[in-house]
Structure formats: C-alpha cells, structure tokens
Sequence to fold (429 residues):
Amino acid sequence: MISHQIDKETIYSYLEEVKDPEVPVLNVIDMGIVRDVVLRDDYLEIVITPTYSGCPAMDVISMNIRIMLSTLGFKKIKITQALSPAWTTDWMSEEAKRKLKNYGIAPPNPKQQVCNDKLFAADEAVQCPQCDSWHTHRVSEFGSTPCKALYACDDCKEPFDYFKCH
Amino acid sequence: MKNESANQLINYILHLADNALILGHRNSEWCGHGPVLEQDIAITNISLDLIGQARNFYQYAAKLINESSPDLPGKAEASEDSLAFLRDNREFKNCLLVEQPNGDWAKTILRQFLFSGYQFYLYQELQHSINQQLAAIAEKSLKEVTYHLRWSSEWVIRLGDGTAESQRRMINAIDELWMYTGELFSNTEYELSLIDLGIAFDSGGLQPPWEEKIKEIFAEATLPYPEKVFTQTGGKDGTHTEHLGYILADLQFMQRAYPGSEW
Fold:
C-alpha cells in the first residue's frame, strides 16, 4: 500500500495546502488547528481542534483535509475533534501572523486579552494592517466571523478586521 | 444501577445542550433586526458560540445514547440533529429563562447577562469534572462565555445608567425575568445523582458568586437589586412555559415536514 511508505512530514506538507475557507491566506497548520497526525495500522487519524465552538468552517475544513489526503492514497481517514486544551491564538505561527497582516487583517496580539474581563477595559493597541499606525479604535467586539473584531484606523481611516486574542 | 447513572448523565448533558441551543435560537431571531449593525453581528455571533456549544454536548449525548441502548433492527441512531430536531417539548430540559421571548433590546441584554453570568461560574466548575469530555467542552466554552459576560455587562450598565427611557426598560426587563433566575440554582434529580460522582456540581453553590456579580453590575448600572420573588421552576425537568412550543415549531419545522432533508 502506498500509504504505508508515507511519513508524517509528507502528510504535514500536504496539510499545508488545506486553507481556512474564511481566511484563505492561512492553512490549517498556520492556524494551529491540526493537533496531531497518527498513522494507524489500517487508517490515518488527524486530530483537529476548533477555533471557536461554533466555527462554521470546521466542517468544510474536515472535508478538505479528507480530499487532500486521499490524493496521497489514504483510503481510510478518521478525523477526530479534540477540545482540550482549548485552541488559542498563541498557537498561530509567526509566519501566519505575517500572512494575515499582508492580507489586511490585523494579527492577534500575543497577550491573552480575553483573560481581562474588566468592563470597558482600555483596548490594547492594535496596529492598522494598512498604514501601520497604532492610532486605531475598536468599533465592535464581534466581527464577520467569531474569531475577528471590527476596528478602524484613526489615521488612514480604513476599517479593518482584527483577529482577536483568544 | 450502572445503567441508571448512564441515563442521568445523558439527561444532564441534554440539559446543558438544550440551554445553549434554545438561547442560541432566541438570539438568532435578532438576525437582521439588531438596533445597530455592530450589535446585530454581536448577538448573532453569541448565537453561533452557543449553538456550537450545544453541538458539542449533543454529539456527546448521542454517542452515549447509542452506546447504552441495544441495537434493535430498524432503530434509528441518535445524532446531534435528531436530538435537536426530533424531540418534543416535554423532553427538552432547558431552564425557563432561556426560552423567554426576546422582548426589547433591554430584555434580550438582561437575559444574556443573567445567563452568561450563570454559565461563567458553571463552566468554571465543570472544567474540573472527572468526566473528561464535559470538562473539555466547559474549558473550551468558558473562553467564549467570558466574552459574552463582558459584552452583556457593559450593555446592562449602558442601558441602566443611560437615559430615563433605557432605565425604565431595564427595570421592566428585571421585573419580567427575575422570577426565572432561581431555577438556575435548583438541583434536579439527575444533577444530584452526579454530584457525588464528581461529574456535576451543586447548582446551589453557583448562586453566591452569581449574586455578587449581578449586584456589582446592577450597582454600576444604577439598577435596583430585586427583592426575593416566587421562583418559577420546571424547565430542567421538562415542564416549560408556553414559549418553548413556539420555538420548537419554528426550529423543527423543516425536519418535521421533510424528514431527513439535508442542505
């Protein structure tokens, strides 16, 4: 069987071709969604974790992982969902953050902003992905997808998405 | 006996799932009707989180149901979909609070705040459950609920300490919803049976920190903390207000009219 001669590294390189449908510049490795790849005797197991419980992209991502790996000759692929430890933006690679910025989405700050449950807490400075200004403000804590918040730049006036800390 | 505790666990998981699904559904009714675009997006994002949490609980409940019941020929397997779309009113175990109508923005905000506060303390406990799957779902959900609690707290303050009109509406919302909060802290038989096993936690224990949180936010919002009122209960055991039936008629229509239909 072809699949037996394939090592994990090859599988990971194929997984890098599977994009996040809502943020198509990122792949599932960049996002930190793939937690493990396990080669079993008669099947391949991919362990993934959702970014948010209700992330609607997870079903599409699972399907795309299946399609991608079937091109490597794997007949039986089991996709398991792990919830713990819970996904965090700290798992996103530096490369991913660079790609996000180039795409026009401000990457998450490294600090765990969500731990701050103080009300009306002053937002951490978020840098505008267009003009690099730090003079920005939050428009809404919730944005076009669960993982993003809406911001606007006070200098170039462009609105932008911020991939919020989680 | 072993079967009995398996059943109680399934009931408990369905209770957690139904709470999240029904409030998620209620919030989704705001889609396209929010007072401003950003808050329309906020309340529906909270819906999405809650429905995601419900899915995780339903998937786990379905797995346990299928493992515990004998394979009869022709028996349909339980799934997250069958649990959400094919159970009747009396089988739902959500609290009465979450099924209450949206009312105005003040009532929706208050319902979210009262419930997010409850979920916040519940999931903090549940993430230490000896049941690993429940602990994992709680740990994951807690991060989302922390956002919901902060967002709804800010809105309670904004409206309570806002104009005379917004304060009047908040006080009206308190009058309408307060009688449903006591149920959050009452234990059902299925919870009691799981407490000693380290799976569930005494709901009553969540009340003191919850009350403290509500008092803190109400004080900042210049809203009066309500007197003790008669508590309406029953939802956790399947006896609901009339509102749940209407929700299910809407939520389950497609699967009832076109069984098995898929996107």
Strands of chain A lie at 34-39, 44-48, 77-81, 105-106, 136-140, 148-153, 159-163. Residues 23 and 100 of chain A are 8 Å apart (CA to CA). Chain A has four helices and seven strands. The radius of gyration of chain A is 18 Å.
